[in-house]
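On clarity, I found the account of how folds are encoded harder to follow than it need be. For illustration, here is how one protein appears when written out as sequence plus structure tokens.
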Amino acid sequence: MSPVLPLLFALSVSATPAAERAALIDIRAASAAEVEALRHGTGVRWWLELGNRLLVAGDLPATTPSSRSAPVLEELTDLRLDELALRAVGCNEHADPPGELLARGGRWQLRRLAAGAPLPQTADAHERWRAVRPNEVIARQYRLDAPVGAPPDPDVQAVVSRIDTQRWFADLSQLASWDRSSYGTTELFAARDWIGQQFAGLGLDVETPDFTMPDAGGGSITRQNVIGRWTGTTFPDEWIVVGGHYDSRNESWSSTSNTPGAEDNASGCTGVIELARALLPSQPQRTIVFMCYAGEEQGLYGSQAHVDALQASGDLDKVKGVVVMDMIAYSADARLNADYESYSQAYLDRFGAAAATYAPELAVTTSLHPFGSDHMPYLDANVEQAALGIESDYDAYPYYHASGDTPDHIGPHAQAMGGAILKTNVAVLADLAGVSTDTDRIFSDGFD
């Protein structure tokens, strides 16, 4: 035998991660100091933080210490790092994904695959898989870093107080009365025109620009975004974009009937209208572009078209902030939780701070691993301050992407859930768009 072969064999064995003990810990009630201590506990070789869950692995004690604020949910005796994968959960088709679900954080699932199974591959733009990297924060509870809310700003509080959840839910119900698949025509166009009428009634300049997208048969169709524009009183060339898609779907990707889409995404689209109602009486100093996109369910076509148009016109650099809402109405229980994601932690912290002050009933989780909604074309075009707000229980909603996604099925917590996200978002937007009477504050808000 060649003397090189034993060495190659040894290298191949050492390159394969060994089976380890692991523990999945509920850190919902833990402090930042407790989470840090758990990461560096006895025998911990690596960890993964997923919002209110923490996975620690290594040469752990036979029984992992548990506490009231950080109880151990599950112990795994033979976990291997190369068996783990992270799956981004977007608007994918509904085939059962491979592997065992261990935990989720933000919009990512931690799944344990079969031994030796390769990382799943998908061509679906709404689904993504990636390997686990040790010692990584996939999502983090905002309160771990800044648990106390600041005193409210009177000008911002005035805007927040204008949010009317009953009015918003009535709008949601109206929009959900139409089938809004982007492959449809009559009812989709009726919804488009109704959105435009709401914007016009608020005194906004309304546009319905065309864009093209593939149709279900491989050809192309023309559809429209709906834009309501407020021109800033002081800084008209500094723009804030507020968006949500108005198209919908059911179990069938291409169906044009029975697509009420109340939660996904009449909730976010009519949220855009409600935010306009709350902001405009304060005469914002910056321009606000209120956007309702079509073509999201098929591949973010409407939002990508908007970004393309901004680049073509030379206006992209004017965009100083983007807030997108996608599914904001459902909560599985009375605990209200929302995920905010972007590439900028400083921007995400604005939403956490706003919730702590203006919607303290809302628990915010932030993630620097954004994915699969209408904020992504802006992020991909290097608009740093672009974020998605989405309620955390969306993928547990029984009628997600189903013909039963009707207003009566969203549940008893819909107005509280939607109201908390709307108050959080409008507080951030009030600050970004400049509603304060304190001009020094407007000039010191961090924009270039």
About this structure: The chain has two domains: 18-140, 154-443. The mean pLDDT is 91. The domain at 154-443 is CATH 3.40.630.10 (Aminopeptidase). The longest strand covers residues 235-245.
